[in-house]
Amino acid sequence: MSARDRALSEGTQAPYRNPLYYDQTYRRRRSDVRFYADLAESFGGPILELGVGTGRVAFEVARRGVDVVGVDLMPTMLGRARERLNRLPQRLRKHVELRRGDFRRIRLRRRFRLVLAPFNAFMHLYSRRDWERALATARAHLAPRGRLAFDVLMPYARELARDPDHAYRGHEVRVPPDGTRHRYSESFSYDAVTQVQMVHSTFERVGQPHNSWRSLLAHRHVFPAELEALLHYNGFSIVERWGDFDRSPLSTEGESQVIIARPRRMP
């Protein structure tokens, strides 16, 4: 495995090794949960979620009475999802099925009205081939007239061009499970050829500056016209596209690209 491949592998896994910290960090992120749950309720089940994580979206879908199958590659995230699921009432648990798998390859031999890939899951697709495989997975599982819904960040040149040697200081954080206090900072490096950005997070334990550790996140940025082409040449047409989960128009000020696509007939 090359150094680049090792870095991408680490950047795909490291952010999800501590699911308690993940849940703590994103507990207030709710607009995307409501968006996808509303969408699931309008389509009805069953729903397939690619990159289910700890169940943030899937459990809200279940609360709407919709059946959902959640797929994730990381055992840590699935373990946390199962732990949370077991604490839910039986009337909700019956709507959720969790499966381990790589969404570039998994085949469940089932069809779904809606396939979801929330919270930048597709930004872990680092090559055209990865995108082809993931979109083939979506097509293989969509029922007739089904829809694919996902979001990725809107790339901005000014942010991708940040000085990789500059550390951006964040708030002090408590890291579970023991809640130790850490000073948090981030630095960013971007490869314009591969369009992959590495986010280097440093955690320095308060009172013990020698006791620090780093985490890596890898994201491949996809520009709007490029994303439209990827979908088109892999058998999808964009039905709706927004710049945020409030369904505001795609713009140069929005944070995300929120996409709903349908399969089309291939030539």
Summarize the structure in short.
By secondary structure, the protein is of the alpha/beta class. The chain has helices at 3-13, 19-25, 31-43, 58-63, 75-86, 90-93, 128-141, 157-160, 224-232; strands at 47-50, 68-72, 96-100, 112-117, 142-153, 168-169, 173-175, 180-191, 196-205, 212-220, 236-242, 256-263. It has 9 helices and 12 strands.
What characterizes the major β-sheet? Answer: 7 strands, mixed
Kindly name the structural category.
alpha/beta
Shape: globular
Could you say how many structural domains there are in total? 2
Report the CATH topology name of the largest domain: Rossmann fold
Q: What proportion of the residues is helical, as a percent range?
A: 25-40%
Biggest sheet, spatial arrangement of strands = 3-2-1-4-5-12-11
Determine Rg (CA atoms, Å): 19 Å
Query: What separation lies between the terminal Cα atoms?
Result: 37 Å
User: Quick one: CATH class of the largest domain?
Assistant: Alpha Beta
Report on this model:
The protein has 267 residues and is of the alpha/beta class. The chain folds into two domains: 3-154 and 223-263, Rossmann fold; 157-220. The protein has helices spanning 3-13, 19-25, 31-43, 58-63, 75-86, 90-93, 128-141, 157-160, 224-232, and strands at residues 47-50, 68-72, 96-100, 112-117, 142-153, 168-169, 173-175, 180-191, 196-205, 212-220, 236-242, 256-263.
